[in-house]
Amino acid sequence: MAIADYQLVEGWKHVLALSNVKPGHNVTVLTSGNTHPQTLSTAIQAIAAMGAIANRLELPPVNGHLSLSRDPIAYLGTTALSGNRAAVAALKESDLVLDLMLLLFSPEQLEILKSGTKILLVVEPPEILMRMLPSLEDRDRVKAAAAKLEKAKLMHVTSQAGTDLQLPLGQYPVICEYGFVDEPGRWDHWPSGFQFTWPREGGAQGRVVLDKGDILIPQKSYLRDQIEMIVENGYVTQINGGVEAELLRDYMEFFDEPEAYAFSHVGWGVQKRARWSAMALYDREATIGEDARAFAGNFMFSLGPNTEVGGDRSTKCHIDIPVRGCTIKLDGEPVVLEGKLVE
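Above: the chain's sequence. Below: its structure in token form.
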């Protein structure tokens, strides 16, 4: 069902209030050709209703001729801010940037955040936004899980499908995503509900078995057969299986980057309003698959860059893989048992 404009305006006002937007604050809405028109129009209305100053910055799409997909995360090259000092300066002067185009993994984004400007990514369809409207309870749940992750030295992931993966931790910080930006220089994504970190460089070891129903993003596909990944010294060194493994290998080979096979962020979902099945109800270009990333009890890992936390592994290929049915232990203590959260 569609969302009425007044409902989305109220949703925006709720999120802006959680993000500490005050009268007189400068809020810049960053848009591009694929920005959802209802999300944009209601954001402008909500900003004005909060007594804040609304600006809109429209930037052209990039990388379309280089990517294999129209998904905005399918090719992490330069962004529309690359070399655009005027746009960067305007965003740094803003109290809050609403990113309705998607700027992940960009040095310019990190520069903007370091200035104290907050950035909130909002690119999912309105009905997904409203179903997963963030709350203080979401923040508490994510931060409680993150506190366990911050203390851990080892994440051990197993599954009945055959996964047995050792992930030493502690080199990189833990990132929380709970759907709003309540601190200066914070980035977040509405909707969300998970926490993650990066394993120590060269430390990931073992075997991942992706089973039927597990998800590849940006392919946004549910697997119909198993894929086995052999992980050695922080890299996926083998991708074994049938035609779906061949498809994944061919996709990754397109980028011709060894670092594309490096283990990137690892964590688990805690958002109980996110659904594993929701992605099947949408056209692939309508969503970036946030339900899949956040649904409670998943093991979500990725391959590719680590620049988001100050690393130097910049790759154009980035793959997120939400996995069901795993047991996740931190220093021997389970936080997820066979795909169910340990409350």
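Residues 44 and 54 are 6 Å apart (CA to CA).
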